[in-house]
Structures are given as C-alpha cells and as structure tokens.
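Hi there, hope your week has been kind to you so far. It would help a lot if you went through both lines with me. No rush at all, and the record is pasted right below:

***
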Amino acid sequence: MSSQPTSQTETPTEIAAARERFLTDDNISAGVRESISTSWRRSRAFNVHADRLELPFVREPNLESPLVSAARPIIRQLADDLSAEPVSIILTSSDGVVLSRATAHRPLGRMLDEVSLAPGYSYSEEHAGTNGIGTALENRQATLVRGSEHYASLLADLSCAGVPIVHPVSGAVMGALDLTGLADDGGPLLLSLAKSATAQIEQRMLSQASERESRLLNAYLATCRRAPQMMVLAIAGDVVLMNQRLRLAVDPQDQISLLEHAVDQTLDATASRLVSTMASGRAARLSPVPEYWDERSGMAVFHVHILDSGERLEPRTPTRRAGSGLPGVVGRSSSWQQCCDRVARHVGVGEWIAVAGETGTGRSTVLRASATRARGSVRVFSAQDLRVPEILDALAVELDRDDFSVVLRDIDTLDGPTLAHVASMLQGRESAGWVGVTVGHVTVDALHDADAAAILLPFFSHTVPIPPLRHRIEDLHDLIPTLLRQLTRGRELTVSAEAMRSLSKYSWPGNVAQLRQILREIVTHQRSGVIDVHQLPPSCRSLSRHTLTRIEALERDAIIRSLEENGGSKATAAAALGISRATIYRKIKEFGIDV
C-alpha cells in the first residue's frame, strides 16, 4: 500500500464526497488513492458499519511483552518531544489490539476515548475499517489515513499514521506504531516521525534478541550465502527461518510437515537418515549442516531435498458420508462428521466427555444419540431443571443406579453452589456409569464458578467442540428436508432453489434451533407444496454478517416490506419510508437485502 498522503487536488470535501459515492453505489472516484479504495472494499467485505464503531474489547494488554519492553523508552521520549502537540502515540499488537496510548493533549484523549482507541480494543480492519493501524497491518506497509479516507465516519476528524513493527530476526510482524492527530494537522510529518520511531524500536528488539536467535540468524544467512541454489530451513526454539526457494517449492501444509520432521531430528540425530513424507504425498530429506548443529540448545540448520521420483504418494482422504451414522443426526460436512465420530468414539468406550459449542448447534442431540447407540437409554437433565430441588433429587437417584447414562445440558450456566452440589453427586461414581455434559465455552475449565470448575474438570477427560451452523452451511441440504418431515409429519413440503440460496447466505446466529423455529413458523401457514423466498422471514432475506441490533432489525424489515409493497422500486420505497434514495441504497448493501 502506498504511504503517500492525499495529493493537493484531493481536498477533504472531495474525499468525503468520494466516500459517500462509494458507500451508495460502489463507485470509486479517480482521485482516491488505490490503497484507500482497496481498503474500503475490504472494509465493506468485513461488513464494518460506516456510520458507527462496534469495536470489541479483546483482552487486557500484556505490558511485559518483548514488544512493549522494546518500545517503552522510544515512546516515552517521543511523548516528551510531542507533549505540546495534539498527537497521541499508540502501540498495538500484530492483531491490532491497542497495547498502550500516550498523549498529553486532553481534548484529543477524550476524542480517542469516544471511538475506543484505547488499550484492549481492536483496531484491525475487520472491526474498525480503513485506519492507520489496521490498514498498515493488513498491508505490512507504512500507511497514512486522513479524515474521510477512514471508512468509519466517526474517525473523519483524525489523521492516523501507522507503521508495522517487524521482528528483525524472524521477519514476523509484531505490531504497529501509530501517531494519531487531528485531520488538519501535519499528516506527512506524523508518518515520518512514526517511521523513525519504529526503526528505533526494531533496533532495540534486535539488541534484545537472545544469543540463540542471533546465532541462528548468522548461521542461516551464512548457509544461504554459501549455497544460494539450495533450499534452507533453520530452527531454534520458537524461531523458524526458511529461504524463498523453499517457500516457493512447498505449500504451507508441506512446510508444517517439514518443520515437524526438523524438530524430530533435533531430538534424534539418527532421524537424518530417514525420508519424510509430507502432507501432499511428496517425499523430502533434511540434511543438517554439521557446523551449525547444536543438540543442547535445539538449534539446527538444514539443506532440504525434495525427492520427486515421478510417483507421488496420494494423501489419504476420508470417504464422505451422507449422514453421521447416529440415530436422528444428519449432516454431510466433514467438520460435522468428525465431531460426531469423536463424540461417538469416546462415548462408545465409556469416557465421560464435554461437548462445547454455541446454543442450538446440536450438542445434546449428538451426545444423546451417541449414548443411545452405545448404551441404550439415556436420561437428560437441563441446567434450568437442575435449579429445582426436586429435579436435583431425581438426578441423585439416577446416579445411584448401576450402569446409568446421563446427559447434563448447559452445565456452565449453573451457579457455583449448584455446580458444587452436582460435582459431589458425581464423586466416586466414575466406574458405575456414564455422564456427558454440554457447555457453551470451548473448555470445561471456563465454567461459571472457578472453584466448582476445578472440582468438575477431572471428571471429563475430553472436550469436543461442535461447529456452529454458519461454519457447516452445506448441512442445510440435509437438515431442512429432515426438519420439514418432522414438522409436517411426513407430508411433502420442499424449499425452492431460490429460497435455499437465501437460507444458505444467512449467518444463523441461533444455529439449528433457529432454523427449526423458522421452519415451524412457515409450516403453521403451509403444510405442503414449495416454500418460496417471499415466504421466508425478512431476517433470512438479508446477507448482513454482523448480528443486528433490535433497531437495525426493525429498519431492515421496514425496508424489505416497503420494497415488496412498491414492486422492488428503490426510489418509491425510499420515498414511502421518508428517506433519501442514497440512504436506501446504502442500507440495502449494509443489510445485504436480496429481494
């Protein structure tokens, strides 16, 4: 991306007008820098809102990281030099999360607080759109974004000059340094200062690099100079270096295979005589460079030889099945199949497991089906039921039986005392029967109460994550016919191709449970025939990627109804709603309305 500022012929007013044209009709004016227009398109693809910011608080910054330690004195000196100027110095991580912010100008500090340009918040393009931090990280180039070049209108009063910070040994982007000031103040000067400060930070990182990393870099460079025609791989600890010849010769999956083989060789020198088969089926041999072999520190430099004998081993691919093999469970996607297989395998050998995922994904369905197939009958208790003393007593009675099979749903939503009580029931019953639980987090140790989680965690040897429906959207082709047969009790009700396309484009925040509810509402009005796109609820006829607020949902539904009532005419629909044509065009694109 070009780091040059807007030319003199591109006034702030012209840039603002160009941004509005882009948001309305996708038209990019000739005066807009290519780097900015490309970033605008990415921001739209990320579904960033143009009129407000919805930035997530990602995490508390690690102020003891090597990056922060290297940058701290540079930022302190720069802050002293700019103490009289309306400029803020911002350090971020490689994923755009703000680590620190320094400014002596209180009005500017308040402005930055209002747009969440503060520690812990993410300014990646995915969340904030075009801006000096996210766009610099996206393109790995120094970037100046001024005024209305920002995708989000709330940033139009600012100039942001961001520069990626690259680790001098590994070449990885460690973060970014950004100087942010008012839109009318010295943008090019900010960029120049940011570049100079970044260079100083990178120099400090080099001086702070460990002796092992420095030795590895010198050994790697020396090997590359001696044999430029060879493919070279070097490793030491967490640092991995490979030359361009190797990167171009093998794909990323094969690079992972090579790295694993290299680590094995550092642990066992005899492995150098072995030929490694990579993920693609190609064969490779790693030849260590003797003078740079240090088994004690784990440092090694290799020449890589790709053995293309003309006959490659074909990678094994699993046979794709139409169903999971579990009773009442459907889905053809590989991610769903793998999850079902893992759950069934653990349940089949009697292991107590947790199944994690979003609400409505089918966690308890998979658990119950696996238990039914492997163990016969199964008793299911929901967290809501367990808040009732009588139900807790019923669970205690069930767990006292021989060879019990129990599923506990949404156990992470229970309060601490109830969790502790359930844990006391499970104590000592591990060999008497089987228990499976569903949780809404990735791991069982993320339960509501930390102490109770520590008690429950030992009971469950495995946690299997279930993918949300939006990550296995191809399963709709199995789920919809199955659900319709259940809801209509076997009557012939199908979905048109156009309606299926709309359903496939929806993000399904409520997962399979939401799909069932939508089909249930349709079935109340139609028991047979074909469901067409106009019979779907408005939410399923839009392509918005973010979860809409209640106001946005009402706004989207009103636009869809107005378009339908006015024969699809956007101008007439806008007039009926009392909004401008430019606004309705923008909202149609923002909500992904397809009517």
